[in-house]
Amino acid sequence: MLHEDWLTQNKPEIYWPMLADRENVSSIQHRAAEQQDEYGARSQQKAAAGLAAGKFTDEIVPIKVVMGAADKETSRIMMKEVTASADEGIRSDTTTKACRRSAGDRGRVIAAGNASQFSDGATRAS
What we know:
Elements: H1 5-10, H2 18-28, H3 33-52, E1 63-70, E2 77-84, H4 96-101
């Protein structure tokens, strides 16, 4: 990734990854890890309820994609065409406790359980 020297020296936060930025915002807003976990779990539960109620039906358009998949017998990666037709990021079984349990670094506010997934280019209701 290219970096502009002036920005690197004067505004290094412009190059922060999303998790570092979210940690910074959480400290400014005085958000505790528990608050982030509650929000993350509540967001997942609302998204699951919306999905179950058909709220996303008109917003999720099936698309054919090519994905890599490991052959179970040989472990070789093979490419295959699949149709993606659902938001795979909605975790209906998410709980506040599960959010914190997934934290790798216990000192951080943002953890895997309350953070956006890598494919958060599309947004969901929360």
